[in-house]
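ok so for the tutorial part 2 we go from a plain amino acid sequence to predicted C-alpha cells. step 1 is just haveing the sequence, like this:
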Amino acid sequence: MTAQKCQAITKDGAPCNAYAVTGSDYCFHHDPALADERLEARRKGGRARHGRQIGPTELVEPIDLDTMADVTALLHRTINDTLHLENSIHRARAIGYLSGLYIKALEMSTLEQRVIELERVLKARAESKRSKQK
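step 2 — the prediction. this is what the C-alpha cells look like for a chain of 134 residues:
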C-alpha cells in the first residue's frame, strides 16, 4: 500500500507534495480538521523559542586582545563553549567558521612570535655594535 499525497493546491497553483494524514485527503498543513492542532503547534514553537538562553547570561569580564596569543585563546574558549550548545546545523557552521579563524590566528601567532624574536636578535646585534664602537 502506498501513502497518499495531499490533495491541496499550493498558493502558486502546484499540487502539494506532502503525504496525507492517515484517514484524510490532506497533509497536516492543509487539513481543515487539523486547524486547531496547527495553531497549537505554532504556539508551542513560539513559546519554545522565547526565553531560551544559550549559555550563562551573567556579564563576563572583558579580556585584552593585544596579541595573537590572546586571540587564539579567545577562539579556543569560544569553540569549546559552542561545542556545549545544542547540536544543530547552525552550531556546526559556527564551529567550522571559528575553526578556520583559529587556524589563521595560530599561523599569525607563530609569525608574531618569530617577528618578536627577530626584533630581539636585531636589537641585541645593534647594541653589540654600539658597545664595540665605543
